[in-house]
Amino acid sequence: MEIKLAKKYGFCFGVKRAIQLAEKSAGAITFGPLIHNEREIKRLEDSYSVFVENSTENVKDNQSVIIRTHGITKQDLDILKSKNAKITDATCPFVIKPQQIAESMSKEGYCIVIFGDVTHPEIKGVMSYSVSEPIVVGSLEELYGKKLGKKVALISQTTKQTKKFLEIADYLMQNCYETRVFNTICNATFDNQEAVRELSQEVDIMIVVGGKTSSNTKQLLHIAQMYCKDSYLVEDENDLEDLWFRDKKICGITAGASTPDWIVKKVQDKISKL
């Protein structure tokens, strides 16, 4: 069986930066999981004693704290500062951008519309910077019937699909007096999505490697399944099942932005031995 790797996959700039910061901050805690990959989080715990803390109540005064790549809410940041925490900000620069837009545009009286998952930590953080109540939608259909202001500013979760973002932008431009559109989708996300779109049309089985709670990884799986019905999401080589590969001739592999190369290599090696 032939194995093909996507042209673009795996760690993005923001994740690489966060991992490097964590490795230089041995003994610190991360406020929330640094990235959405349990295997890499475990590696940081075992090798650098960098542990996850999910509550500001448990953060001690003057403690060294790393802010996760997805960012945190403005309120949680204020609490950390009030405790004189030694903060290392690993928030991805591409996530900081929509935070700044939400704050500045809402102060100018714009209704903030966010294309994203309201339960995702990145979106929770972005919402907290808007001075007015933002509208969060996961699809164009969710926008129907929403009470919109005359002036609207549209931003997106960094890992969403450009096509769906443009559908929402088009709707707002046709239904609002003034619409400001800010494309806050990460370039690396777009490149990885285009690469899996291309590869999944060439193979008869597609393996997407990444955390099952990772938004960008789930997006890759969704795109792969559009073109290759036998597409599967695995967190590491132990999730692979032999039956998936029966009578398959070409296997494609891609990985989410929080997936390190060492996990991808283990998956590739196990598939090559089937």
Automatic annotation (TrEMBL):
Reactions the enzyme catalyzes: isopentenyl diphosphate + 2 oxidized [2Fe-2S]-[ferredoxin] + H2O = (2E)-4-hydroxy-3-methylbut-2-enyl diphosphate + 2 reduced [2Fe-2S]-[ferredoxin] + 2 H(+); dimethylallyl diphosphate + 2 oxidized [2Fe-2S]-[ferredoxin] + H2O = (2E)-4-hydroxy-3-methylbut-2-enyl diphosphate + 2 reduced [2Fe-2S]-[ferredoxin] + 2 H(+)
EC number: 1.17.7.4
Cofactor: [4Fe-4S] cluster
Cofactor annotation remark: Binds 1 [4Fe-4S] cluster per subunit.
Gene Ontology terms describing biological process: dimethylallyl diphosphate biosynthetic process; isopentenyl diphosphate biosynthetic process, methylerythritol 4-phosphate pathway; terpenoid biosynthetic process
InterPro entries: LytB/IspH
Binding site for [4Fe-4S] cluster: 12, 92, 186
Ligand binding ((2E)-4-hydroxy-3-methylbut-2-enyl diphosphate): 36, 70, 120, 158, 214-216, 258
Binding site for dimethylallyl diphosphate: 36, 70, 120, 214-216, 258
Keywords, ordered alphabetically: 4Fe-4S, Iron, Iron-sulfur, Isoprene biosynthesis, Metal-binding, Oxidoreductase
Gene Ontology molecular functions: 4 iron, 4 sulfur cluster binding; 4-hydroxy-3-methylbut-2-enyl diphosphate reductase activity; metal ion binding
Pathway: Isoprenoid biosynthesis; dimethylallyl diphosphate biosynthesis; dimethylallyl diphosphate from (2E)-4-hydroxy-3-methylbutenyl diphosphate: step 1/1; Isoprenoid biosynthesis; isopentenyl diphosphate biosynthesis via DXP pathway; isopentenyl diphosphate from 1-deoxy-D-xylulose 5-phosphate: step 6/6
Family: Belongs to the IspH family.
PANTHER family, alphabetized: 4-HYDROXY-3-METHYLBUT-2-ENYL DIPHOSPHATE REDUCTASE
Protein name in the entry: 4-hydroxy-3-methylbut-2-enyl diphosphate reductase
Organism of this sequence: Helicobacter anseris
